[in-house]
Amino acid sequence: MSEQKSWGDKLRFGFKRTSEALGGNLTGLITKEKLDDETLDEIEEALIASDLGPAVAARVRDRLASGRYDRHLSELDIREIVAEELEDILRPVAVPLEIDAFPRPQVMLVIGVNGSGKTTTIAKLGHLFLEDDYNVMLVAGDTFRAAAIGQLKVWAERLGVPIISGEEGGDAASLVFEGVKRGTDDGTDVLIVDTAGRLQNKSHLMDELSKIRRVLGRLNEEAPHNVILVLDATTGQNALSQIEVFKEVANVTGLVMTKLDGTARGGVLVAAAEKFGLPIHAIGVGETLEDLRPFDPRAVARAITGADEFDGE
Ligand SMILES: Nc1nc2c(ncn2[C@@H]2O[C@H](COP(=O)(O)OP(=O)(O)OP(=O)(O)O)[C@@H](O)[C@H]2O)c(=O)[nH]1
């Protein structure tokens, strides 16, 4: 119970800068007597300025326009209406990561640009699975940098889970192969693989992933079962271009968005949901292991719009 509450508080706190930005953009528009076209245009622009993107802003505008509100709408009314629309957009993509009964281990490749929070996210996902009593193993497949290998080893130790790692510059695919073999023998449920999947150049990423696939295919045709793209919300609209490019070169199966706490640009979560419809497995609102969770679309929509700050929920 208290865990739930504290996550709710973290969400509201995390999205505070986003909801303040949205509120700031809306303030002044709401005092108008009725929702004429000019006010609707201004609200639409305010939503775009909040990183929700033009498509989401247009949806909200349509909703407001079709409401035929014959009364003065307060700021809270507007926030409530926006929150409902955002919830509708987020609901279909709020898909928690599931571990299938078979085959085990389930192989999850984690990709993302440098500094997106990839390594931390792997640790946080591991923590989530451990909480659900799954056996977890990590693979330090980002062999480009010794620091990345070291960092993942520290996380593995903290989590108390095994890790397969090699030397800097080593072959990621053979580490993954070893991980699946060991994981099969040890009864591992989920193998989470860090990758150097970073888009320094597209062909390198494609080569890396296709080699991993090829090698994995010898053990299990369906692996990798998940290819998870980690995105840093503070990059705003740039996160959308990253999805576009990664989708082109890797078979991205789902997203994790991090650093929603450090930014006024959290609206990009909704823009991504609307534009791509890819599952968003979890969101990160802080640096500790507990700060990554599958999300409740209603709670997130209300945190983004700050609706609950107003009605005292
Ligand atoms: N505030 C906040 N910080 C985060 C979050 N997720 C990750 N970070 C921080 O972001 C920084 C980068 O995270 P890493 O996990 O090292 O990122 P990476 O993508 O693996 O980066 P490289 O190892 O450089 O490839 C670290 O300081 C993390 O603590 C989050 O949800 N919120």
Describe it:
The structure is a single chain. The protein has two domains: 2-93, SRP54, nucleotide-binding domain (Four Helix Bundle (Hemerythrin (Met), subunit A)), CATH 1.20.120.140; 106-294, P-loop containing nucleotide triphosphate hydrolases (Rossmann fold), CATH 3.40.50. It has helices spanning 2-14, 16-26, 37-49, 53-66, 75-90, 118-131, 146-159, 172-186, 202-217, 238-249, 268-276, 297-305, 307-311; strands at 106-111, 136-141, 163-164, 190-195, 226-232, 254-258, 280-284, 292-293. It has an eight-stranded mixed β-sheet with strand order 3-2-4-1-5-6-7-8, with helices on both faces. The chain has 13 helices and eight strands. The radius of gyration is 21 Å and the shape is elongated. The protein starts with a helix and ends with a helix. By secondary structure, the protein is an alpha/beta fold. The site of guanosine-5'-triphosphate has 18 residues, from helix 6.
In short:
One of its GO terms (molecular function) is GTP binding. The chain has 313 residues and is an alpha/beta fold.
